[in-house]
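Supplementary Note 3. Input sequence used for the single-chain structure prediction.
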Amino acid sequence: MDKIANDCRATLWQPFDIYVANSVLPVALYGCETWSLMLREERRLRVFENRVLRRILGHKRDEVTGEWRKLHNEELNDLCCSPYIVRVIKLRRMRWAGNIAPMGERRGVYRDLVGKPEGQRPLGRPRRRWEDNIKMDLQEVGCGGMDWIELGEDRDKWRAVMNAVMNRWVP
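The predicted structure, written as discrete structure tokens, is reproduced below.
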């Protein structure tokens, strides 16, 4: 009986493993360390993730009516133990910030992500910068008053922050 249960679990999780490790997620998250996400984009990414998981996991038979129906978001989250796609993006962005901080202004990557653009600013509200997202992520973890560049330059402190992020965001 255990062999049958293991075979069923293997056939269920094989497509999910393709999503997480091999195909869909790495392609969708290519370069996400440098993205500056607004709430609208985060919502769109969650919708994309749920759509892909529904396609992979299929429909469920309703116990009361006996009809097939789509899985609800809570059921998808219960079946899949992986963190949300937005949390993965935030985690990768924080990890990348720890690599960027010690570089200093002499490096082009640092200037592109942290520097101030020259010239006139367009009308309207200023766009959210990558650095603003890092500050918001630190606030979410509980390190809001600290300067992320100083934290990133001290490897031990940054490692402690990353451990707090991992414990909070990854189940």
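The radius of gyration is 20 Å. The CA atoms of residues 1 and 160 lie 45 Å apart.
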